[in-house]
Write a structure and sequence with these properties.
Strand content of chain B: under 5%
Number of strands of chain A: 8
Strand content of chain A: under 5%
Radius of gyration of chain B: 22 Å
Distance between the termini of chain B: 56 Å
Largest interface: A-B, 75 and 58 residues
Number of helices of chain A: 23
Number of domains of chain A: 2
Largest sheet of chain A: 5 strands, parallel
Radius of gyration of chain A: 25 Å
Structural class of chain B: mainly alpha
Distance between the termini of chain A: 69 Å
Shape of chain A: globular
Order of helices and strands of chain B: HHHHHHHHH
Oligomer: heterodimer
Number of strands of chain B: 0
Chain lengths: ~550, ~180
């Protein structure tokens, strides 16, 4: 701006160039703006897990205190993984940059940052692969799309591989089926080799390794919380349920994400599980050691995932159960459905799951021996084994958010909807390009659901919220139901910000509300303590 | 009501304004933001298209600008969580003034008065925009707190349930930043 100008234009006054310059995608510059990135791993948690290069550092610092041979470690790590995972080599070589994935990522849609296009995010790693692992790249370098691995490139990996929630929506649209989540997984694994990890993944993983759950709850604490829930349920229903912990010889081991017995609104679904299992007389037990279905190892490395998952089959074996049922969780099911069998199986000491109430054999779980509670409950309803009063959920106008992993990683699309239609009277689908296989992520999965990066999560969650807003405005939807612990933790904030007036709940919370239990007292409140429809006045008197 | 000459320019103003807003994003994203018309596939682009139309319409029709609070909220809420500074996030209203000036020729005292009145209305919108932006940012901090509390609401009721060593050391990275 020159002094001779009498009337500076507004954009000059604020001294900005409002048109961002087009940058070469190979330029690795990133700015760690507060609210957009995750804090580094707590050294104590790293030590507990025996991770390498334990130190204090933060992404905003210039010096990340990398080991002197960091580059060699990463390139060797990449070489090793390319040999080990045929899929990775294919994903590195096969992309033709058709662009089908480009506008499918919720972070790209919400931010407009080109490096959130899945194709470009993958190029961050692919360019280094080309430079060091392909003949063309070795000779032609940048001309062949190759890029030298430098510290700015490493920082860029950190920034963008922690802006991918491994939701796999982009993969649905890729004609070659490139799974960008796997590229992110490898990118994070490589970073962890030089001690670059985030705390929201590492500390829950360390807690999980020590006590069996993310929060570090010890067995007596776990038992207390289950007993506490039984008391709460008795207050609401008048029925005393007796869930057991570590009981040998039970027919079923029941594994839930730990948020179910501590988080809000997860806890209300936990009450629903207890009510349901009591009502059908299921012979089940919890394990105070397999007290976490979630597995943040998936977001760290294949090795960590295997290590944290081992407890599930180990506890099933120790307790001598016949099969396993799992609660409402997202990534937990990706691990259980796609990895557990080959990582820690075969579970040949277990039996193919068979409902003791309906006799249904869950052939789909013939190998893993573990079924999702939505499959189990849908089967009960289908066989008319539950007495349900959907009017009890009449205060809710409901839509269903397909949690990424149950939907895309295990195809659990119909069961939750079937249950919902039986336990409530007002159910409305969101637009079809935002549900089922095309569901939009909450923006907080894969270990990103913490507070310091909330701004980034609100960006990434906007496409989801936008679709909820549509059914809120058109159908008066006021409850967003989901079957994932991370969703339940993060969607309430997303709704408060983008669609005020919509709460978040779990599937089995509604099942529990609708379930008419034998010998129950007249219920005045739902599981949240809110008066049931028609009971409002009575409570206020 | 603004003069007929400007009313004729409504579509041009709107188009230029939208282009200016889209230009605040990376050039690599602008094609997508402009061309993908599905409101669920491109909520940011859709919001820009819909709400700018609403704002220009009301401004030109002489409608009550208080009714534009929702449109403005929709636009600013998005920008409040994107990579913009507060000034960048609200700049678009000042750009609207510039675009209108560029598209209009003031030929009479009456024109001048009408233009001044219109600009005053845009200034009022700008003030409203500052309020909305601040409210959005405050809300982000409130949400951070609310999430932390909800995350372990049972633990907060009965802290004996958490293992001692976590309680002493804390598992919050805030402590080492």
């Amino acid at each position: 701006m020159t002094m001779s100008k009498k009337h500076p234009k507004p954009e000059e006054l604020v001294a900005i160039d409002y048109q961002p310059r087009r940058r070469d995608w190979m330029d690795p510059h990133v700015e760690f703006r507060k609210g957009t990135f995750n804090y580094s791993a707590n050294p104590k948690s790293m030590e507990y897990l025996g991770l390498p290069f334990v130190r204090k550092w933060q992404p905003t610092e210039d010096d990340w205190k990398l080991p002197p041979n960091w580059k060699e470690i990463i390139l060797n790590g990449l070489r090793e993984r390319i040999d080990r995972f045929r899929s990775l080599r294919i994903f590195m070589d096969i992309c033709v940059r058709c662009g089908a994935c480009a506008d499918k990522c919720h972070f790209y849609i919400g931010s407009g940052d080109p490096k959130n296009m899945p194709v470009l995010r993958a190029e961050l790693l692919r360019s280094v692969y080309r430079k060091d692992f392909t003949t063309a790249g070795k000779i032609l370098g940048k001309l062949a799309g190759g890029r030298e691995l430098t510290i700015p490139v490493l920082k860029e990996w950190f920034y963008y591989f922690y802006q991918c929630t491994e939701c796999r929506r982009c993969s649905v649209f890729c004609p070659y089926g490139i799974d960008t989540a796997e590229i992110t997984i490898i990118g994070r694994e490589l970073l962890n080799l030089v001690g670059i990890g985030i705390d929201w993944i590492t500390t829950p993983a360390a807690n999980c390794f020590r006590t069996g759950n993310h929060l570090g709850i010890q067995p007596h604490g776990f038992k207390d919380s289950v007993d506490f829930a039984a008391d709460d349920l008795e207050d609401i229903t008048g029925i005393k349920v007796n869930p057991s912990v570590n009981r040998k010889g039970a027919e079923v081991l029941f594994v839930v994400p730990s948020a179910d017995y501590f988080g809000d609104p997860h806890y209300f679904g936990f009450l629903g599980y207890l009510a349901l299992f009591h009502e059908i007389g299921l012979d089940y037990t919890f394990s105070a050691f397999a007290s976490e279905g979630g597995n943040f190892g998936l977001f760290h490395s294949h090795e960590m995932m295997k290590r944290l998952n081992a407890k599930i089959y180990a506890e099933a074996k120790r307790l001598g159960v016949k099969y396993i049922i799992g609660g409402e969780c997202g990534h937990m099911w990706r691990v259980l459905h796609q990895y557990m069998d080959t990582m820690n199986g075969p579970a040949d000491f277990l039996e193919v799951p068979k409902s003791p109430v309906t006799g249904t054999v869950f052939e789909n779980a013939r190998s893993t021996k573990m079924i999702h509670i939505a499959e189990f409950t849908a089967d009960l309803i289908k066989h008319r084994k539950l007495k349900l009063d959907p009017h009890r959920n009449d205060n809710h106008r409901i839509t269903f958010h397909d949690s990424c992993n149950p939907a895309r990683a295990m195809g659990l699309l119909e069961e939750p909807r079937y249950i919902l239609k039986n336990v409530c009277n007002h159910f409305y689908e969101m637009p079809e390009n935002t549900i089922r296989e095309q569901t939009f992520c909450c923006g907080s999965g894969s270990g990103l659901g913490t507070d310091e990066n909330l701004e980034m999560r609100l960006r990434g969650g906007f496409p989801r919220a936008n679709a909820v807003r549509y059914v809120h405005e058109n159908h008066g939807v006021n409850l967003l139901v989901c079957i994932c612990a991370i969703d339940k933790a993060t969607l309430p904030g997303l709704m408060d910000f983008w669609v005020p007036g919509v709460s978040v709940g779990g599937l089995h919370e509604l099942v529990g509300n609708a379930l008419v239990m034998k010998g129950e007292k007249e219920r005045d409140n739902d599981f949240r303590g809110t008066p049931l429809p028609g009971k409002e006045e009575k409570v206020h008197v | 009501m603004i003069g007929d000459s400007l009313l004729k320019k409504k579509e041009t103003v709107l188009d230029k304004w939208r282009k200016a807003i889209i230009a605040s994003y990376s050039p690599d994203a602008s094609l997508f933001l402009r061309n993908q018309k599905n409101q669920f596939a491109n909520p940011v682009g859709f919001t820009i298209e819909k709400e700018t139309a609403e704002i220009v319409q009301t401004l030109f029709d002489g409608g009550d600008i208080e009714t534009l609070a929702i449109s403005l909220d929709r636009l600013i809420r998005i920008r409040s969580v994107q990579d913009f500074t507060p000034s960048q996030a609200t700049l678009f209203l000042f750009q609207l003034k510039r675009i209108i000036r560029e598209e209009t020729t003031v030929e009479s005292a009456e024109d001048y008065q009408k233009m001044a009145a219109l600009e005053e209305r845009i200034d009022s919108l700008a003030l409203l925009a500052f309020d909305i932006y601040s409210r959005c940012r405050e809300q982000i901090y409130d949400l951070r707190l609310k999430e932390i509390k909800a995350r372990a609401f049972r633990i907060m009721k009965d802290s004996d349930l958490i293992s001692l060593d976590i309680k002493q050391e804390g598992n919050s990275p805030h402590e080492n930043t």
